[in-house]
Amino acid sequence: MLKVDVHKKFISKRRSTDVSFTYDFPEEGVFGVYGASGIGKSTALRMIAGLTKPDKGSVLFKDQTWFDHDASTDLPVAERKVGYVFQDYNLFPNMTVHENLIYAAPDGIITPEISDLLLATQLEDLLESVPEELSGGQRQRVAIIRSLASQPNLLLLDEPFSALDDDSIEAVISELKRIKLNKGMLTIMVSHRRDVLSAMCDQILHYSGQGELVSYSPQQMKNKGFESSN
Amino acid sequence: MTKKSIITDKRLLLLLMATFVVALIVYVADYNYTPFWITFKLAFLTTSILLVGSIPISYFISFSKSKSKFLLESIVSLPIVLPPTVLGYYFIVALGPRSSIGRFLEDNLGLSLIFSFEGILLGSIIYCLPFMVYPIVNGFRNLPGSMIESAQLLGKSKRSILWNVIIPNNRGSIASGVLLSFAHTIGEFGVVLMIGGNIPETRVASIAIYDEMNQMNYEAADHLALVLLAFSFILILAIHFIRNSKKKQFA
Fold first, then answer.
1. What share of chain A is helix, strand, coil (3-state, %, to 5)?
2. Best mutation target, A79, A84, A90, A94, to test chain B (most B CBs within 10 A)
C-alpha cells in the first residue's frame, strides 16, 4: 500500500499556494484524482515520485520509506521505481519505439507480457518508428507500455490525455483497461476530465488542494455534479 | 532530432564544401602551405580537446543546483569580453619562463609554453572555451525537463542519462559548438601572437597575412586572405545549416 502525506508551499510575488495531499491508497486499483486546474494535482504526483521535494510529511510504500521529512529520508527518483507518464515529451526522440522499450526494460529484456501488450494494442508494427513519426495518441500508448516495461512498483499518470483528441483518448483508455485487467497494479491518474476518470477508475478522489480528499465511486461521480470544479 | 532534415542539409553542405575545397586546392597549388597546416592543426586539436572537456563543464553549468556555479559560468564567459592581449599577458605571467609553473614545466618536462605550438594550443583552448561550451549549454537547457525526468523515473543513472538521452538529443548543439570553435580558432590572432610570437613554428595563417602585409608582400597576403575568407565562409554556412535544422527539433 501507499501512504501519502505531503505538503508543499509555493510562494510567488502574487500569490502563495499550499499543496497538501493526504491519502492511504490500497495495494491495487485504479484511482483518479480530480480537481480544478492549478491547485497542485500534478505536484502531488510529482512528490510521490520524488521529482518534487515536499516541505514536510512522508511517503511510505509497502515497507519502504520513500520520503520522511522528520527522518531526513529522501529516496532518489531512480530507486523508487515508479512508472510515470507525463502530458508530453515522454519518449526519447533519438530512439525508435523498440529502443525506447529496451532502454526502459531492466537489463534490456522485454518480457513476454510487454510483447503481448504490444501485439494486443497493435503497436508492434510501429516498433521501428521514431516518436516523431507517431501520432499523439500512439506516443502516449507507447509511453504507458514503456513505463510498464520498467517493471514499476506503481503507475502514475499525469494528465495523460490533455494533449490528445477524443479518438486517441478512446485508444489510450482501452489500453489502460487492458493493463488493469492484466496487472492490477496500483495506478493513480490525474485528470481534469471527469468523463475519462469515470470510464477508467475504481475510485475517484476529489481534490480541492486542502484538507481531506473526498472519495467517490464512478457511479456516484456520474450522478453528482461538481459545482466547485471546472 | 529530425534525422531527415539533417541529412538533406548535410548533402547541400557537402556539395558546397567540396566545391570550395576543390577551388582552393587549385588556387593554393603553388604556395607554401605551412601557415595553413599550423592553423588547421591548431584548430583541429583545440576543437577535439574542447569537445571532450566541454561536455562535463556544460553538464555542470546546465544541471547543477550549486549556488556557486555562476563563478564557473563567469570564468568560462570571460574570453568573450577579454581582449586577447590581456589573456596573452596573463598567460605569459602565469606560465612563462619567469613563473614557477613555467620553470617547473621547463625543468621537469622540457616543455615551454611560450613561443611553442603547445603554448598557442593551450592559449586557444582557453580562448575558445565559451564558443564550445555555450552552444552545448543552450542545447542542454532547452531539452524538455520531462524528458530527463522520464529517464530518472526509469531508474537510469546520471551517466546513462547523459550518454543515452542528453548527448544524442543535442547532436545539433554539439556540432554547432564544434564548428564555432573551429572557425574561431582559425580566426585567432591576438592570443597566438602574444603567446607564440611571430616565428615559423607558431605562424598561423592570420599572422602570416599580417606578416606579408608588413613586408608589403601584397600578392601573398591577398592569396592567404582569400583562402581564409573562403574557409570561414564555409564554416559559418555550416553553422547556419545546423542552427536551422535545430530549430525544427522540439517544435
1. 35, 25, 40
2. A94
